[in-house]
Amino acid sequence: MLLDEGKCFKLVCGAGNEDAQEVEKLVALYSKAGCKFFDLSAKPEIVEAAKRGLQEREGYLCVSVGIKGDPHVRKAQINYEKCAGCHKCEEICPQKTIKHCKVKSARCIGCGKCFEVCRHGAISFVSENKDLREVLPELIKLGIDCIELHAMGESDDWVEKWDYINSVYDGILSICTARGHLSEEKMIDRIKQMIKNRKPYTTIVQADGFPMSGGRDDYKTTLQAVATAEIVQNAKLPVYIMLSGGTNSKTAELAKICGINYNGIAIGTYARKIVSKYIEREDFLRNEYVFNEALKIAKALVETL
Fold first, then answer.
1. Sign of CA dihedral 109, 14, 290, 104
2. How far apart are CA 206 and CA 241, in angstroms?
């Protein structure tokens, strides 16, 4: 119903965000603000944390998995022999996962901002390629409402993973894709291959304009998300369209101006950033005043949809 009405606000906690305490806080806050769809790391403890955050409120949980080369399933690592100790990586990290030139892997979402500012070549990435046969059965037993495959890399291992997901789960599936490593034609061709054996409108295509780039709140930042969604829309496929990647409070407005008939908007980096100073507090879930201050900000963002 949320998708059909075009009112599906999806909070992206981060496919690589394995900080259960932060996820619980984010879900508690944004579910109270009116969000009903949450994107999570594919780990049982994270799904359980999200369920605690819901506190009996209505909400749908989506777990994300990826293919080799996808930025959402990688973790930064620092070569200490090359590190000059300039702390620029620490300053720019949106998750505040780098302290004293060390990466707290559980909080790293693989955004690459640290890599971009490092002038010494000290930062590289390692992909966390999960075995879905070990991961998904337990998650399905816990009760999830959607599985999302990040299939934007050049690797062909999406075929095996997608086939397996379809064989063990008969609910709504989501395909997160972008033009970063694929041409427009290849992106649409991949989507067509993935939905050819699925019933119409049982699949979400999350059109990821510029993955994990939503730190700023302006039209330029969200432009690629809208442009990528337009490519999917023009293909006239029987799928739901979710805008993502650089999304912020301007996304819905720009999409409507451009005539994009979207079904939902997924916001991660920006949604987390605007409430981060409150979420970081240890007493966040106990301090009513602090929670309500953050709630005003979160609710204003959800209502932009």
1. negative
2. 6
Decide: 219 and 250 in contact? Cβ < 8 Å: yes
What is the CATH class of 73-127? alpha beta
Gap between the Cα atoms of 187 and 87, Å rounded = 37
Q: How far is CA 297 from CA 53, 266, 271, 272, 294, in A?
A: 18, 17, 9, 11, 5
Residues of each domain in the chain carrying CATH 3.20.20.70: 8-68+130-302
Closest CA to 14 of 60, 50, 56: 50
**Which string of DSSP letters, residue by residue, matches 113-125?**
HHHHH-SSS-EEE
- Which tokens hold the place of 196? 């050819």
DSSP one-letter code for 12: E
Tokens 């987390």, residue?
272
CA dihedral of 173, 150, 305, 286, whole degrees rounded to 10: 90
The DSSP element (H or E) to which 175 belongs, if any, is strand 172-177
Confidence of residue 144 (pLDDT cuts 50, 70, 90): very high
107 vs 14: CA distance, rounded Å = 9
CA angle 161, 238, 192 (to 5 degrees): 45
Cβ-count burial 135-164 (b if 16+ within 10 Å, e if not): ebeebeeeebebbbbbbbbebeebeebbee
CATH value of 8-68+130-302 in 3.20.20.60, 3.40.30.10, 3.30.2350.10, 3.20.20.70: 3.20.20.70
Q: What pLDDT, in 10s, does the model give residues 190-237?
A: 999 999 999 999 999 999 987 766 678 999 999 999 999 999 999 999
The dihedral region occupied by 56, where left means phi > 0, alpha psi between -120 and 50, and beta the remainder, is: left
